[in-house]
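User: I've been trying to design a sequence by hand for this structure and keep getting stuck. Would you show me what you'd pick, starting by listing the structure so we're on the same page?

Assistant: Good idea, let's start from the same input. This is the structure you sent:
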């Protein structure tokens, strides 16, 4: 599988999200993600706006679904999302419902193993229940809270290779990665490279980061696309 670059639009304003998405596409980004902050702020309206502006681009709706799986996936698919996200900690019937809705409405399902007691087992559970992709995810609050208490911040890279080897579906790593670490993900067997807070978005204010974002994204895209997944 050719490595893919996805940008997470972790913004709270659809106009700024559209501007960021436009420059990201010019830079070579493959997929757009309606991040959780954007969905909370703009809902289906935000996903529709992204679909209207980028009719041929895959759009991930990061719902972090825990219940009501079929309806949530149906609504996002009908708004233009090509991928939706369900949590490994959801009841297995919720995961099955999201997978069923994905099949019914032509939308692929990304399963997120965040806060699983066993991250590898959580990833395998998602695959076994029919998810098309696995997101190996260390949460924002978890990372920052642990670091604030003076302990080592956990990283998705700690178990990324184990997760990638445990499943046959494509894997993505999320959670506090540096640019260099994100670029290296395909070497761990994870072909879906996601860029978001804090790489391209101000993680505290949820607005676009200062600096020449387009040039930075082009450099990242070129480095990722040049790799082969190991």
């Amino acid at each position: 599988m050719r490595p893919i670059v996805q940008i997470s639009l972790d913004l709270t304003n659809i106009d700024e999200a559209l501007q960021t998405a436009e420059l990201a596409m010019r830079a070579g980004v493959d997929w757009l993600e309606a991040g959780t902050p954007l969905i909370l702020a703009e809902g289906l309206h935000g996903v529709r706006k992204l679909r209207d502006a980028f009719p041929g681009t895959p759009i991930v709706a990061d719902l972090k679904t825990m219940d009501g799986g079929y309806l949530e996936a149906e609504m996002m698919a009908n708004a233009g999302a090509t991928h939706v996200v369900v949590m490994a900690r959801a009841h297995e019937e919720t995961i099955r419902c999201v997978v069923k809705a994905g099949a019914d409405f032509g939308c692929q399902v990304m399963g997120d193993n965040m806060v699983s007691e066993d991250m590898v087992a959580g990833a395998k559970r998602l695959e076994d229940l029919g998810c098309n992709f696995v997101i190996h995810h260390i949460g924002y609050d978890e990372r920052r809270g642990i670091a604030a208490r003076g302990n080592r911040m956990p990283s998705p890279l700690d178990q990324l290779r184990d997760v990638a080897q445990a499943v046959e579906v494509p894997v993505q790593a999320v959670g506090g990665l540096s640019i260099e670490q994100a670029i290296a993900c395909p070497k761990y067997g994870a072909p879906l490279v996601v860029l978001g807070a804090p790489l391209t978005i101000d993680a505290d204010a949820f607005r676009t980061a200062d600096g020449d974002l387009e040039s930075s994204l082009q450099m990242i895209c070129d480095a990722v696309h040049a790799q082969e997944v190991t």
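That's my pick for every position. To get oriented when you compare it with your attempt: The first strand starts at residue 4 and ends at 9. Residues 74 and 104 are 8 Å apart (CA to CA).
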